[in-house]
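for the recovery benchmark. C-alpha cells below, seq after
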C-alpha cells in the first residue's frame, strides 16, 4: 500500500512539472546568470558576435535538438562614411546542445562559427529607430514572475537591448508574444531583397506590430498609475 501511494506521489509530482501553472506574465523575465554547460554563451557568440554595434537582438533557442537562430539590428558605417542600419538573420546549420556541455567553449565557438547561415538586408533609420524604441521599452521592464508558469516542451526566446536583457518561454499572450512575433517577422524581412514587394509588405507588418507593442505598453503604464 505504501509503495502504491509513493508511486502516485512521484507520478503526480512529475506531471506537475510538465504542466504550465498559469498564463505567461505580461513581461520578460531575467536571464539566469548560471550557464553551467556554456550553452548560452556559445550560442550568443556563435550567432550574434555581440558588440556595441548590435542595437537589439532575439535568439530563438528552438526545441530540443533543433538549430537555434537569431535576429539582430546592427549599426554599420559604409565606405562613404555613412551610417547604415542592417537587419541580420543568423541560423545555425546544426543543433548546438550536444556540442556544448562541459567543453572548451572557445574551441566550440571557433568550430561552429562557420556553420551559421546569415542573411542581411538594409532598413531605414526611421524603421531602425521605431523598432529599437519598442524593443528597448519591453526589455527594460524585465522582472521576475510572481509564480512559476513554465512547462518542459516549449521554446525559449532570449532578448537583448544593451544594457538590458530578458527571456520568455513559449508565450501565449501579451507583450512577450507580441515581441516574439515582431522578432519572427524581422527574421522573414532579413531574408528579402531591399525594395522588393515582399520587403515592403514585411516592413509594414513590422511597424504594425511595433504599434501594437507600444499600445500594450501604454496600457501597462496606465495600470501602474491607477
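predicted aa per position
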Amino acid at each position: 500500500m505504501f509503495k502504491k501511494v509513493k508511486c502516485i506521489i512521484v507520478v503526480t509530482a512529475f506531471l506537475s512539472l510538465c504542466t504550465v501553472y498559469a498564463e505567461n506574465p505580461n513581461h520578460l523575465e531575467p536571464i539566469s546568470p548560471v550557464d553551467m554547460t556554456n550553452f548560452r554563451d556559445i550560442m550568443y557568440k556563435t550567432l550574434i558576435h555581440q558588440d556595441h554595434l548590435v542595437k537589439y537582438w532575439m535568439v530563438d533557442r528552438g526545441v530540443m535538438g533543433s538549430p537555434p537562430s537569431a535576429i539582430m539590428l546592427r549599426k554599420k558605417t559604409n565606405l562613404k562614411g555613412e551610417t547604415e542600419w542592417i537587419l541580420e538573420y543568423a541560423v545555425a546549420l546544426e543543433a548546438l546542445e550536444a556540442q556544448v556541455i562541459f567543453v572548451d567553449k572557445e574551441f566550440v565557438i571557433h568550430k561552429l562559427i562557420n556553420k551559421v547561415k546569415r542573411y542581411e538586408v538594409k532598413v531605414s533609420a526611421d524603421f531602425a529607430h521605431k523598432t529599437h524604441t519598442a524593443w528597448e521599452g519591453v526589455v527594460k521592464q524585465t522582472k521576475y514572475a510572481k509564480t512559476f508558469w513554465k512547462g518542459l516542451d516549449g521554446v525559449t526566446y532570449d532578448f537583448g537591448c544593451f544594457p538590458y536583457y530578458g527571456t520568455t518561454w513559449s508565450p501565449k499572450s501579451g507583450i512577450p508574444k507580441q515581441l516574439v512575433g515582431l522578432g519572427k517577422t524581422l527574421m522573414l524581412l532579413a531574408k528579402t531583397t531591399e525594395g522588393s514587394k515582399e520587403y515592403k509588405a514585411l516592413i509594414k507588418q513590422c511597424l504594425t506590430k511595433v504599434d501594437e507593442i507600444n499600445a500594450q505598453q501604454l496600457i501597462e503604464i496606465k495600470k501602474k498609475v491607477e
